[in-house]
Specification:
globular, Dihydrodipicolinate Reductase, domain 2, alpha/beta, six-stranded parallel beta sheet, Rossmann fold
């Protein structure tokens, strides 16, 4: 993981931020400001002119460096690197930014179909080198507590020693998680035609992945996996390699769920070295706070992570190490003063200034797609659902 030591002032990176929604306002922009010795925000892009105005004035970005179109921002330039925090697939904007010479941090998911990711992994030709300058935003991999767990697991025997990885996510409503931030309401100034065109474009990779007539259950599970569970998959990959199988996939609605609330999801299967994993993603709209527990049981003990809400910047992840033999059991608790998002931005700075490879890039994003399509195929087989597209062959 990248060093937290102070950088040389000459290494200050000018960065453009595309997409000024919730994650930008609550996390990335405040952290870029906190990391002012490493970053300078020099350009912004968002569909909303009012959001651009508010954010530009708040962070001192001149009006001439604010754009309602990402492509125009990339063409205009004036920065070293780009944070893509927009909704939907990030492949088109990532490819254009990379071709123009920028280093890119793209929020997850990078894309939704293998067909679109193939454009970022050409076998040869002029673009073959581009993927090395792309980081995908799996911030939990960079969390100091996760890095400490990986070190402890390595001492215990690494992936081959893992008996099981059990993950439970308690996911309240977005409102419950974000009330503290006091964010202003959306400006409502985006042209309806622009929103309609964006919605149409966002559906195209989903059609490639699942087919045009995919059952609602298949689309729902794919969305939960690609938009949220991908974070848990990134942890499993870091600790034990990509899951070898998806043996079980289920969706169900909580008894208290309201109309329009998503269901909960359960996924399980085998790890590459013979252990097992289980993921329970529980949507509980009235739960008091987001909470995620990751427990790794290995040959000589257990390692447990408890993550707070990702929107709370100064609340550390807790790692509890349990070891010993028989009656001599002991427990050690580890906490760090910084979280995964901040450590991720430090690592991105290392990629921009020194070429330090990221923990996750295009191939890891492709692994998410493979897993999600296998999960949907398992659900379809269990319930007799029609499935086409890439997932029909997963």
């Amino acid at each position: 993981m990248a060093s937290q030591s102070a950088p040389n002032p000459a290494d200050t990176v000018s960065v453009a931020v595309a997409g000024l929604g919730t994650i930008a306002q609550t996390v990335h922009l405040p952290l870029l400001e906190r990391l002012g010795s490493r970053y300078r925000i020099t350009a912004l892009a968002d569909l909303s002119p009012e959001q651009l105005r508010r954010t530009g004035e708040r962070y001192g970005v001149p009006a001439g460096q604010r754009f309602t179109d990402v492509g125009r921002m990339l063409e205009h330039g004036g920065f070293d690197a780009v944070l893509l925090l927009t909704s939907g697939s990030h492949v088109p904007d990532s490819l254009e930014a990379l071709r123009r010479g920028y280093t890119v941090l793209a929020e997850k998911p990078l894309g939704y179909a293998h067909g679109e990711l193939d454009t970022l992994l050409p076998a040869d030709g002029a673009d073959a080198h581009l993927a090395g300058r792309l980081m995908v935003g799996y911030m939990k991999q960079y969390d100091p507590a996760v890095q400490r767990l990986a070190q402890l697991l390595d001492k215990a025997g690494g992936p081959a020693a893992v008996h099981s990885i059990e993950i439970t996510v308690l996911h309240p409503s977005a409102g419950a998680q974000l009330d503290f931030a006091r964010l202003p309401p959306p400006a409502g100034d985006i042209e309806p035609a622009t929103l309609a065109a964006l919605s149409t474009a966002q559906q195209l990779p989903l059609v490639t992945a699942l087919g045009a007539d995919a059952a609602p259950e298949a689309r729902t599970l794919y969305g939960i996996t690609m938009n949220s569970v991908c974070h848990e998959l990134s942890l499993i990959r870091l600790l034990a390699g990509a899951p070898a199988t998806v043996d079980h996939a289920a969706l169900w609605r909580a008894p208290s769920a309201g109309e329009g609330d998503p269901p909960s999801a359960e996924l399980s299967g085998a790890l590459a070295d013979g252990g097992r994993y289980g993921i329970r993603w529980l949507y509980q709209p009235d739960y008091p706070a987001y909470r995620e527990t990751v427990t790794v049981h290995h040959a000589t003990g257990s390692l447990e992570l408890v993550f707070p809400s990702p929107y709370l910047l100064n609340v550390p992840t807790t790692l509890t190490e349990t070891g010993g033999r028989h009656e001599a059991e002991h427990r050690t608790v580890h906490r760090a003063p910084t979280g995964g998002f901040e450590a991720e931005l430090v690592a991105f700075h290392e990629l921009v200034t020194r070429g330090t490879p990221p923990l996750s890039g295009v191939r890891e994003a492709a692994a998410d797609i493979t897993f999600a399509q296998q999960a949907v195929a398992r659900l379809a087989a269990a319930h007799g659902l029609t499935l086409s597209g890439e997932a029909a062959h997963a």
